[in-house]
Amino acid sequence: MSLPPLPQGPLSGHAILVAGASSGMGRATAQTLAGLGADLVLAARRAPELAEVADRLRGGGTRVLDIPGDLAGLDAAQSAVERATAEFGRLDAVVNCVGTNVTRRSLDTLSESDWRELFRVNVDAAFALTRAAVPTLKRRGGGVLIHVSSSAAKRPDLSGVGYQAAKAAVAALAHAAMEEARADGVRVSVIYPGFTRTPMIAKRPTPPTADQLAHALQPEDVAAMVAAILQLPPRAYVPELMLWPSQS
Prior knowledge:
Layout: E1 15-19, H1 24-35, E2 39-44, H2 47-59, E3 64-68, H3 74-88, E4 93-96, H4 112-139, E5 143-148, H5 161-181, E6 186-193, H6 210-215, H7 219-230, E7 240-243
Parallel strand pairs: 1-2, 1-4, 2-3, 4-5, 5-6, 6-7
């Protein structure tokens, strides 16, 4: 007996790589894009959590390739892009949800090793994914690259000097890459979410209050904005999108 056809959606036939897909915004983005019919390549450092996300989406009929590993190196990012293209015959978009922070984050407590780790995870991964993805998107005549930064890159707060500097660097990288790639049909966007209820809040020096959590964004809110950008026609470009809690 033949299997029923997969459900069609606005992103059916699109192959999209989501980095940082094991939890938080990346996980929510993968789930949202699966619901829109996309074929997915999911990458993250935490292999067990990534496998759980991939298996759940496959159970719903989505075609998924999961790639555990650290994409902060160019070789790893290039391999992920090449495997995506080999698996699905194309790559239409890359969504970078990779990010981290540290607990000891104030200027007088941030260590040099933590400063370097913040840039390695946040900025090096953004560079590696951009450097690996843009040539592939250019060759296919265009595509979309979305970097999820943070409202801390726009509006100073107490998230830490290293985190804010790293997330601002991600945005600068994205805008510079857009200027180099726009003539080839590649669009590079940046999303700046405000306080979002993700596992990373566990690294806050002081736990958020119940009221703060009640008014926080949810990962699905960020995923909805990613999906909206990906569904725009090639003539439309979103340089930046700020998404903040309405009661902050």
